[in-house]
Amino acid sequence: MDPLLTQSEMDALREAMHDRGGAPLVRSVDLCADDRLLRRALPQIEEAGAHAAECLRLSFTRALRGAVTVSPQPAEILLAEDARALEERTAGRLVLSCEPSQADVPLLLDVQLVLLHVQREFGGSLEANNPGRGELTGLERGLLARLGPSLAEALSRAFVGLGLRLRSRHAAARACVTNSWPRQASVIALSWRVAVGSVSAGVHLLLPHVVIEALRAQLSGERPGGRDLRWRTQLVEQLRMVEIEVIAELGRAQSTLSQILSLQVGEVLRLDRSLTEQVPVLIDNRVKLRGRPGTRGDTVTLTIEEIGES
User: Fold this and answer.
1) Residue 121 main-chain phi, psi, to 5 deg
2) Which residue has the higher pLDDT, 122 or 188?
3) Which domains does the chain have, with CATH numbers?
């Protein structure tokens, strides 16, 4: 979807649109089409994320064999480079395949959660496994991969209303999914806090624009790839409310400085235009209209006779 104006053009337009008190007449708008779509989708995605908390709780309860609480966190819009940094510093990396976009997305689990899963499966001490490390062993990745289908199914149940389906592919040894995303692209980050006893860890799902674009019809009622007509209509309405100065030029006169300084009240300046000539109307210092002056009661009027720049 192409933006109507570039961001720099919109910034310049907003700077010029102020009322006499200095208050802006239009709100700040980011014209990046990808970013606009994600910001419009954010409330519905966040609502699905809140529903996913209960689905994830049931999945983790079965896997960890204990009382689990899952708390949804506020959704964020990140730059892809920030999402990449998050994937790199999170040890538990599940690669999920999305439908209908056919794109891969990362589901990230803090290492404490993975180690707790290992402890519940094989015993041992959680503290002894150094929960601060950034990589998992092959055994730990294998156990995480076994947990992947259950987590993907839980998320799919939460997102069923939006048509998003997730399938677990594998557990990755290192950051790989976000490497292909353009650095300045926008990404929706959904996060949950999982608490099991004294252990608390984060779970993060990163959804790039391509995934949200595939859900556009469910999110906004528009066809995929269609223009953002609602935003365009709002922008046009805001522009139509902007006040502009209109100047009707009755005529001009040439005079020397000494003549101006010697003017007295009651003296007459002769202008270069007759009473029967059309008067140019200037908008932004450019002639856009022409008309004939007149009166209506005690008010000076102008009857428009020509429209067009000259």
Assistant:
1) -85, -40
2) 188
3) 7-235 (3.40.1550.10), 245-307 (2.30.330.10)
